[in-house]
Design a protein that fits this description.
By secondary structure, this protein is of the alpha/beta class. It has one domain (about 30-150). Helices cover about 30% and strands about 10% of the residues. The strands form 2 sheets. The protein has a 3-stranded parallel β-sheet, with no helix packed on it. The N and C termini lie far apart (about 85 Å).
Length: about 150
């Protein structure tokens, strides 16, 4: 019984190692999912908000889009929160009013919430136009008051 030649075993190992370097790495399932998600606007939203204060989770996003009363809200919110007139509410970077449970936002008069502003649970924020009989602009329909919340 002869022992294997040490030089030939080393050559075989070098060849395997070289093949692994020359061969492109195969993508795992997570890499494939990330690449597919990065091709769509919604998928990029999931990926880009993962490590932020207000991450958008796919399950929560889907439930929100399937709920008729929350469909028009363009940021993630808790299912128990209520938002009226979301198109009149402008939110900043990493801001998600209503992400905490039980929030109420009414944006008829316009609300601007600045960057990195957090809203706690069970908070109500409302803005609606108030007409003052003494103000001529309000009689013409131009007197709309808006509210701005920002981090100080």
């Amino acid at each position: 019984m002869s022992s294997p030649d040490p030089g030939s075993v080393g050559a075989e190992m070098r060849t395997r190692h070289e093949l692994q370097i020359d061969r492109p790495e195969t993508a795992g399932p997570k890499d494939v999912v990330r690449r597919l998600l990065s091709m769509t606007r919604t998928g990029r939203m999931f990926l880009e908000t993962r490590a932020t204060q207000t991450p958008v989770a796919p399950g929560r996003w889907l439930r929100q889009k399937l709920n008729p009363s929350l469909r028009d809200v363009y940021w993630p919110i808790h299912p128990s929160s209520l938002v009226q007139n979301p198109r009149r509410i402008l939110i900043g970077i990493e801001t998600s009013p209503g992400l905490m449970p039980g929030c109420y936002l009414q944006g008829l008069g316009g609300i601007i919430i600045g960057d990195y502003t957090q809203v706690g649970p069970h908070v109500g924020i409302g803005s609606r136009p108030h007409r003052d009989a003494r103000d001529r602009r309000s009689r013409s329909g131009l007197g709309v008051m808006s509210m701005t919340l920002a981090r100080t």
